[in-house]
Structure formats: C-alpha cells, structure tokens
C-alpha cells in the first residue's frame, strides 16, 4: 500500500485555478524560448481546461504570448470519428484554442479517429516517437474522468501502458452521451496516450472542478496506487500537481485537522 500524497493546490473556484495553470504554461514557454527551444505542450479536451485555454488566448491577445514555435500533442481522440465531426477532439481543440492563437498547424498533433484499424499500432508507435524526437512533453495538462481515467486510460490501464486503442468505460460513455445525442451514439473505442507516455512528461498539471469529481479525486490522491484508478499513478511522478476547486477537494482527508 502506498499512501504518498501528490502536491495539491485548492482554489476558491475554477477560474483562479485555470489562470494559475495558464500562468505556469506561459512561464514554461518563456523558459524554453530563452534556451532557444520550442515548448512542447501535452493538451487535454473536455470541460475542465476550457477556462485555462481562454486565459492563454487572453495572454496571446493582450500580452503577446507567442505560440509560433510551440509544439502540441493531444492526449486522445474517439475512434472511429471524422476529424470534421462536431464531437471530435480535433474540432474541440481548433474551436476552443488553436484558431485563436498563432500556432503553426504543422506543430499540432492529435491522434486520428480515422486511422485504419490495421495501421493503428504503427501510428501509435509513431506518435510516441514524435514526442521523443521533439524532446518530450514539457507540461502535460490533464483532466480526470469519473472512471479515474487520465487521457482515456480506463480502469485496468497499467503504469507502463503506451499510446494505443482501447474500449471506453461505461461511465465515460454516459458522461459523453449528451454531446452525441445519446449514449448509443458515443464511440465504443478511443485512441489514447498511455499512462507510461503521460508519466514521461517533465511536469504534469491535473485539474478537477466540481463536486462530481470529489470522490474520484479522493481515490486518486489517497487510495492505493493501482490500475483501478489510473490517475493514482501520478503520485509516482516527481513533478505533478493537482489543481482543484473547493468542491472537487471536499472528500480529501484534511492533512492538518483544525
Ligand atoms: C480529454 C481527456 C479526459 C478528460 C476527462 C474529464 O482529452 O483526456 O481524460 O480530461 O474525461 O473530462 P471533463 O473535463 O469534460 O470533465
């Protein structure tokens, strides 16, 4: 049993938390620029990072934060799905973030929901190789699913799992149902970076907001480290911080009782 606790920052609500993560990303971008190297960002989709993306867009528009040489790798994508489909993570990233900043589209990488089944293993290996060729991910942004997933690493995903195709958990498909006009329309499968891939990032920021995330945050932060909750593996990473609002932190055991 391993009770090691990850560093946790708790904010009044999601806005200051999102701004804090955006500031951290901007700082890493500037530090990398100073060394003459582009920053490599690992990005997530979903509701959780939206305000963080808004803050980065504001920094770009008002403070000239420069994304021209930034390289991005997204965590995951449904499979199969067309990149032009409204529910695809390609469209989400373009609409929420990429079209508002000066990123070079050739530096954007997202697993494709159109990869043919027989080529998926090769494409996933190439995705990993590309991350390594670019020097690894400087900052990885994560949300957490109610199944405990990071990326789409559903329960059963091992510590050394790599980028691959897998079946989505029932809870994950239920949570995605409204976006797809019903659970039956949610793809059964997805392509995701593995837990091992994520753990190689130099720094990891996991964000979780709202009471719906409180119970899984407690399990990730305090229960045994195991593949039952893939986010629990983050406690074995030396530079991971959880950014929570008050509601998401509510079930954590107080470290210093009053
Ligand atoms: C999305 C991703 C997922 C989400 C998680 C939380 O790219 O990798 O792990 O971060 O499902 O989703 P939201 O933020 O919508 O609650």
Low-confidence stretches: none
N-to-C series of helices and strands:
EHEHEEHEHEEHEHEHE
Strand content: 15-25%
> What percent of the residues sit in helical stretches (DSSP H or I)?
25-40%
Indicate the mean pLDDT.
96
Strand arrangement across the biggest beta sheet? 1-10-9-6-2-3-5
Q: CA-to-CA gap between the ends? A: 27 Å
Largest sheet: 7 strands, parallel
How many helical stretches? 7
Q: What's the total count of β strands?
A: 10
- Hetero groups bound? fructose -6-phosphate
- From the spread of the alpha carbons, the general shape counts as globular
Using only C-alpha atoms, the radius of gyration works out to 17 Å
Structural class category: alpha/beta
What is the structure about, briefly put?
The protein is of the alpha/beta class.
Please provide a written account of the structure.
By secondary structure, the chain is an alpha/beta fold. The two termini are 27 Å apart. It has helices spanning 14-34, 50-63, 89-96, 120-133, 170-176, 195-199, 214-222, and strands spanning 8-11, 40-43, 71-74, 76-79, 108-109, 139-142, 164-167, 189-192, 203-208, 240-245. The strands form two sheets. A seven-stranded parallel sheet has the order 1-10-9-6-2-3-5, with helices on one face. It is built from seven helices and ten strands. The longest helix has 21 residues, at 14-34. The radius of gyration is 17 Å and the shape is globular. Helix content is 30%, strand content 16%. Fructose -6-phosphate is lined by residues 44-48, 75-76, 143-145, 149-152. The site of fructose -6-phosphate (F6R) has 14 residues, from loops.
């Amino acid at each position: 049993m391993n009770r090691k606790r990850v560093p946790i920052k708790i904010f009044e609500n999601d806005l200051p938390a999102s701004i804090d993560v955006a500031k951290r990303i901007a700082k890493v971008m500037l530090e990398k620029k100073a060394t003459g190297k582009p920053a490599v960002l690992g990005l997530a989709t979903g509701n959780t990072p939206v305000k963080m993306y808004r803050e980065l867009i504001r920094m770009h528009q008002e403070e000239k934060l420069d994304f021209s040489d930034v390289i991005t790798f997204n965590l995951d994508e449904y499979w199969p799905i067309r990149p032009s489909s409204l529910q695809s993570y390609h469209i989400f990233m373009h609409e929420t973030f990429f079209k508002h900043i000066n990123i070079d589209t050739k530096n954007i990488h997202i697993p494709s929901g159109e990869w043919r089944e027989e080529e998926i293993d090769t494409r996933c290996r190439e995705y990993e190789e590309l991350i390594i060729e670019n020097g690894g991910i400087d900052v990885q942004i994560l949300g957490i699913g109610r199944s405990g997933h990071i990326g789409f690493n559903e329960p059963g995903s091992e510590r050394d799992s790599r980028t691959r195709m897998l079946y989505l958990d029932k809870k994950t498909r239920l949570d995605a149902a409204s976006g797809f006009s019903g659970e039956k329309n949610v793809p059964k499968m997805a392509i995701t970076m593995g837990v091992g891939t994520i753990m190689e990032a130099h720094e990891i920021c996991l964000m979780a907001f709202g009471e719906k995330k409180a119970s899984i945050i407690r399990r990730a932060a305090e229960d045994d480290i195991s593949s039952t909750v893939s986010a629990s593996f983050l406690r074995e990473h030396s530079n991971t911080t959880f950014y929570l609002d008050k509601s998401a932190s509510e079930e954590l055991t107080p470290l210093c009782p009053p």
